[in-house]
Write the structure tokens for this entry.
Amino acid sequence: MKAIGFVGSDGTLRDIEVAQPVARGHDLLVRVGAVSVNPVDTKDRKGGAPEGQTRILGWDAVGVVEAVGEQVTLFQPGQRVFYAGAIVRDGANSEMHLVDERIVAQAPKTLDPPAAAALPLTSITAWEALFERLVIDRHGAQRGRTLLVIGGAGGVGSIAIQLAAKLAGLTVIATASRKESAEWCRALGAAHVVDHSGDIPAQLKALGFETVDYVLCTNDLDRHFDAIATALAPQGKVCSIVNNQQPLAVEKLFGKSGTLVFELMFTRSSFQTADMIEQHKLLAEVARLVDEGVLRTTVNDNFGHINANNLARAHAALESRRTIGKIVLSGWDHNPAFWDARDNT
């Protein structure tokens, strides 16, 4: 089958042929029709693979279930699904892909595959960050409290703004450094936008916010930590989806009894935690909210068919750090729209 990968320390993406995998246990064998790219793809590519080994990336996919393992109970062949997969396994930049059913849901019925492919990884990350790590009630128990989203126009920021504003009823303040990215954040539900290249606490005060109750940091924790510590309210909570590169002055949170917590959506699948099924449940809820018109896709650019050249362009765009929303690719050169004739579920 066709796939896109790189070998060893050479991060050059290439069109390759690999053996088709077989579904066993809780695995679904999915025929992939659309994918999106995330910063984890570029980081993993730069990290390389063991010498002589081929690595296939890609942790956002929409496809049709072709076969199921003997322990599968949630899905059957012919269903269209979406998911982000597991970083400890090969990714979905391949025609056929194995994924554990417990981190998969049926795709939104109102979106075409490329639009749906933009959602899984960022939706899981934002959902877990807001509702599990920051312990925000998604039914509005903290309605009116403030959330600062650093990096509002990125993939995670784009869905977090919607979840926080439309479900939890928070007042969302997003950061963006360009006019077009600020407009994107406002369109998604941000009440205010500040420039993360400037003095964030001063800009918040100019808007009338001495402090904020919650902070979600989606990029460059080292650079923004001092501003976060200054802006955070007493007993406030901070969640970062990126790790620090240098020691953080966490003592700055001590006087405020501040909470700092990390979110990595691959934790459940990497450690095979007992609650892995929660990602299936939350993706199913995201699909329902999309179909009801509460949430919208965050796709902003389609780079064409799934092949090495287009995927390399998508990686380069991410590395420029100027993308808005999500980049997707859809269909394979030899079979660009297999789902049209296959899937009516």
The longest strand covers residues 27-36. The two ends are 25 Å apart (CA to CA). The chain has two domains: 2-119+275-342, 122-262. The domain at 122-262 is CATH 3.40.50.720 (Rossmann fold).
